[in-house]
Design brief:
Blueprint: E1 2-7, H1 11-27, E2 32-37, H2 40-45, H3 47-53, E3 56-60, E4 62-63, E5 66-67, H4 68-77, E6 84-88, E7 104-107, H5 113-132, E8 134-139, E9 142-147, E10 153-157, E11 160-165, E12 168-174, H6 177-183, E13 189-193, E14 196-199, E15 203-206, E16 210-213, E17 218-220, H7 226-240
Parallel strand pairs: 1-2, 1-3, 3-6, 6-7
Antiparallel strand pairs: 4-5, 8-9, 10-11, 10-14, 11-12, 13-14, 15-16, 16-17
Helix pairs in contact: 1-5
GO molecular function: DNA binding; phosphorelay response regulator activity
InterPro entries: CheY-like_superfamily (IPR011006), LytR-like (IPR046947), LytTR_DNA-bd_dom (IPR007492), Sig_transdc_resp-reg_receiver (IPR001789)
Protein name: Stage 0 sporulation protein A homolog
Length: 241
Amino acid sequence: MFNICVCDDEELFLNNLCIKLEKMAVKNNIEINIHKYLSSEQILFDIEALSEKIDCFFLDVLIDNRTGVDIANHLRMKGSNAPVVFLTVSKEHVFDALEIMPLHYLIKQEVQDEKIEEILLKATQIVNKYKAAKFFYKVGHELRSIDIEKVMYFEVLKRIVIIHTLNGEAGRFYSTLEMVEKQLDHKQFVRIHRSYLCNLFYIDKIQSKQVVFRNRTSLPIGIKYMKDLKAKYTRYMLRNL
């Protein structure tokens, strides 16, 4: 099941978009479930649950007294990395959303079946790739796994690697960060310190001597890692815009 959330305060447009999504889903044999919201207040009330179960968001750029960018920022803070499509009548707010890295900007006057199909297929491809990615580790004789998308960073402390997520510590195992790196996609994770390996997705900003994550956790940057960190973070941002 592919879960979609559509939030727009124009009910007619919202319903028409949902009809097109359902039509394209049937055409491509994709089973979808659509959650509709007509106000920012409604969607923010359910933000905790939505951040966990929704695979793709369609958000109105200007909705009542808030913006779709505000809502997307709340979702990212809650740990959702679901693709976001912004709905707008113009592109004047495009720069406000650069940090969100939206999948697409959909101009309301240009909502054609072909464009909806293109976006839906791209979103399902991205989400399926995320869901397939697992990190495996051993605790004693037991093999365990965690979704790569949930890992904010790995920390090593005296040969013990600690897995950190937005919700706190998720596991510990004996290894080294060098061994962890061999299992990971180097485009997604970057070493920032001899003790830390970070998921670029969760980085909010890079300051002079530290990385700040979306939940406001901060970690120090080792001097020898700074140049490589900035280069990889820039490439990651550009690749996902």
